[in-house]
């Protein structure tokens, strides 16, 4: 584990920012505006954080030029166009990194497996027949890399991950703890009142620069493969069923589930706890807000939503009573009938010169 | 691991189908119509796949008699009544099977545990006091079989599964990676503003031919047991709380949760991400579509649904505004009032011979 | 493992109840009214269980004074004000406890870690640099306690739990199997069409008397910490994102997800499968019913709900059709227009002396 401090000059250079203040100011950490100490750097993510910035004890602030002009309380700045991005870059500078290399003595590795000399294999890891582990890949304790699985370079596989079903994992992939990749899909043929298991002969293919959170389940395909393209990011507790295809750079938030054989396009954002039914096609650049329920294909890019929102419970119960009546109420006719009736009344009234 | 090729004659016999074409045609794998090579067999699951079938390179097609007549492009067929079922049967022929037997040297097994000579126990498996593991059962690496757990014959327990709480597992049960069976139920007595834990004294009983996916949580009962009857199939990331009872051959898709003490009947289908509240009774042959929310018992067989469906987000926001007004709008009265008003207008009009 | 029997006198004393009947009656277990044998004790949780109580074979019943008067069928009672609480207390008496102490030979513990002499560390546990494990804490097999993690006294950490990210765990905390604490939050900066990972520099702080179920994911903070205060109880498969703050004694049921930087107050109850969006504030004493969807802060204590409830599917489909029309129907105007039209008709009618 490595942890050191940096000068303002070093940090400004790392994020290609303009330095204002004392170049030799020492910075030992990165923190929020509120919690920053006088040895730390922080960032101001827009005008709405101006007040917090004014009160912050941070030694250095990452800001836009506009913000810098308003922060007369502070002396040291890194001026950039996008402070959030500069902050994202600096998190890697201050991250405590593990730099182990080699194979712990307790790891069980099949003689046919090919493990790079620059990989790290933790305690009690089990790696099966014909597996491949690439350069600088880090496999934490207790991971299970089953027969025929291949993992690329610079990957991070956390503890208790299970990778099976001959899955192929690209480069620079991060898979967090207790996630399962390549387990068999939920495929059963109903026959004479019972469920007959369909052995799942497909696999999982995961591209480069993919990130998968903890406690996810990504099943292998029935015949063809389940595929996550390059740049896909997935949060925790996500279900990706057999034969799903997720396009490049799509982001999937926690607790979302995607049922079998559905295709999700590129650059989509699925917020938390969405449910997407099986055998659908969702085009590129679709955003689903949280808890969206998708039962039909989406052919047009855009933002989509589901659900009733939140009600005080008494109000909710009365709303549900009405909702149950709604099917039998010809909503669109009502307004037309009202208009029609109004016309007839006006005609009656004018005939008799009533109400003016 | 075993992988071999078969003749058309052998495969036709295995699925009790009629062979059309060259009996000695070699088949080395099973694939989708689209991806099949000229060494593989595929299946045509109804008329809607006819076009794909015509274009398929598959060496052999599994078809109905009707479909076969239309596929003049191909020479080799297996004709059956139910091609999907025949496909399901053949998946087992082409599945790569592990056939290990014995106990890996790194497994920790309590001397009082009884492990069949024909079972396989993987690396770093831990098996506690008085456990039983039946014939031909396969326990993958890192599984934890806690004290008093009994597992029947021909079971498959994948890596990182935790079975505890004296659970009893039947024969031919498959439990996928990282699932937890028998953990303590969420039982607390509120008293003086705090939660007092209720130790969970019940267990879990799982019947024969049950399938449980990855990352599931099935809790043990508070006093009595949590029960899954024979033939139940469960997908990934499913929550089954303490004292739930699931009837025979019921299927539960991914991300569904069933709260404590609820009873689900036989032959039910719960699609993905359903939520069933506690202490309910759901009768036999009930189907819940995806994301259904069940807060009352269901006494009639049938299909049930919840949710608003998906809206373009602007449309959704305007809909929610109206939904908030709905409780105070007497929907069923509106139509009656309209009818009544119309009658009165017609009466006025006829009195004065207006509008004919 | 310990299991013994108790006298009625002993049990009455343990729950501070009044003994009625034979003090030396032997009780070997605690059971539900329905399943209790004549060697077991059971409890009557209110009048609605009176019939079951009358039919119960239990040797002893825990009852209120009122109930006791009605149960002339039985001879032995413990009379208390709150039978459910007395039952909760007795579950601990009859729980089979593990009482191991010491470190299994297969555990891998970094020399810098400080493990109490009264702790138990199971098989294949891995404990990293500078970790601390307190007195009487029990860590089950295969757990991973990563570098810098500190765990207090009298904790129970079940198998396959992963604790990482320098998390700090208080005293008397229970974490169930396969849960992940301190994994990195889902933080990415979008830039030029790609997702740039933000290394997560915060940690997780868990107070005293906290309970976390199985298969949960609790992520570490981006800069500051994710915090669960004292007395929080969490069920299975729950997602708690980075920088969430959960107040004292709040209960979170299974399958709920809380997105990043949201603050939940004290004494809240979130029922199963709720979804709370990010950057919200929920005040104290809020109850959310199951599957609630929270997209705005809640400033008033109370009970809140979401969702449509369950419909027979045909009825549901017709309802959804209407719901899609709702946005364009001016609901609140309709009733006003009806009232207005009615007034005008009455005026017309009275002018002409129609209908009296």
From TrEMBL, chains A, B, C:
UniProt cross-references to InterPro entries, sorted A to Z: GMPPB_C (IPR056729), Hexapep (IPR001451), Hexapep_transf_CS (IPR018357), LpxD (IPR007691), Trimer_LpxA-like_sf (IPR011004), UDP_GlcNAc_AcTrfase_non-rep (IPR020573)
Name of the protein: UDP-3-O-acylglucosamine N-acyltransferase
KW rRNA-binding (keyword) present: no
Task performed by this protein: Catalyzes the N-acylation of UDP-3-O-acylglucosamine using 3-hydroxyacyl-ACP as the acyl donor. Is involved in the biosynthesis of lipid A, a phosphorylated glycolipid that anchors the lipopolysaccharide to the outer membrane of the cell.
Keywords carried by this UniProt record: Acyltransferase, Lipid A biosynthesis, Lipid biosynthesis, Lipid metabolism, Repeat, Transferase
EC number: 2.3.1.191
PANTHER family: UDP-3-O-ACYLGLUCOSAMINE N-ACYLTRANSFERASE, UDP-3-O-ACYLGLUCOSAMINE N-ACYLTRANSFERASE 1, MITOCHONDRIAL-RELATED
Domain UDP-3-O-[3-hydroxymyristoyl] glucosamine N-acyltransferase non-repeat region as annotated: residue spans: 25-92
Pathway connected to this protein: Bacterial outer membrane biogenesis; LPS lipid A biosynthesis
Family per record: Belongs to the transferase hexapeptide repeat family. LpxD subfamily.
Domain (Mannose-1-phosphate guanyltransferase C-terminal): residue spans on this chain: 106-184
A Gene Ontology molecular function term of the record: UDP-3-O-[(3R)-3-hydroxyacyl]-glucosamine N-acyltransferase activity
Top-level taxon of the source organism: Bacteria
Biological-process GO terms, alphabetical: lipid A biosynthetic process
Active site: 242 (proton acceptor)
Quaternary structure note: Homotrimer.
Gene Ontology CC: membrane
Catalysed reactions listed for this entry: a UDP-3-O-[(3R)-3-hydroxyacyl]-alpha-D-glucosamine + a (3R)-hydroxyacyl-[ACP] = a UDP-2-N,3-O-bis[(3R)-3-hydroxyacyl]-alpha-D-glucosamine + holo-[ACP] + H(+)
């Amino acid at each position: 584990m490595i942890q050191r401090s940096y000068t303002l000059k070093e940090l400004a250079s790392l994020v290609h920012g303009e330095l204002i203040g004392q170049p030799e100011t020492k910075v030992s950490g990165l923190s929020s505006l509120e919690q920053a100490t006088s040895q730390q750097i922080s960032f101001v993510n827009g005008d709405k954080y101006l007040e917090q910035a004014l009160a912050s004890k941070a030694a250095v602030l990452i800001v836009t030029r506009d913000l810098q002009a308003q922060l007369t309380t502070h002396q040291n700045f890194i001026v950039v166009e996008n402070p959030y991005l500069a902050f994202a870059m600096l998190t890697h500078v201050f991250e405590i990194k593990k730099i182990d290399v080699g194979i712990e003595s307790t790891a069980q590795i099949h003689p046919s497996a090919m493990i790079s000399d620059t990989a790290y294999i933790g305690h009690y890891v089990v790696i099966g027949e014909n597996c491949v582990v690439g350069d600088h890949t880090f496999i934490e304790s207790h991971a299970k890399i089953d027969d025929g699985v291949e993992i690329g370079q610079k990957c991070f596989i956390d503890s208790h991950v299970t990778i099976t079903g001959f899955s192929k994992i690209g480069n620079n992939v991060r898979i967090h703890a207790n996630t399962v990749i390549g387990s068999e899909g939920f495929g059963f043929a109903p026959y004479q009142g019972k469920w007959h298991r369909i052995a799942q002969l497909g696999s999982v293919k995961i591209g480069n620069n993919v990130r998968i959170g903890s406690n996810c389940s990504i099943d292998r395909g029935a015949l063809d493969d389940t595929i996550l393209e390059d740049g896909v990011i997935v949060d925790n507790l996500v279900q990706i069923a057999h034969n799903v295809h997720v396009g490049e750079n799509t982001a999937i938030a926690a607790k979302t589930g995607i049922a079998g054989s559905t295709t999700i396009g590129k650059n989509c954002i699925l917020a938390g706890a969405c449910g997407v039914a099986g055998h659908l096609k969702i085009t590129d650049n679709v955003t689903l807000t949280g808890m969206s329920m998708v039962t039909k294909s989406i052919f047009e890019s855009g933002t989509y939503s589901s659900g009733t929102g939140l009600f005080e419970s008494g109000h909710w119960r009365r709303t549900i009573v009405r909702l149950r009546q709604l099917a039998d109420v010809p909503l669109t006719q009502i307004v037309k009938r009202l208009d029609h009736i109004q016309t007839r009344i006006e005609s009656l009234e004018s005939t008799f010169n009533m109400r003016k």
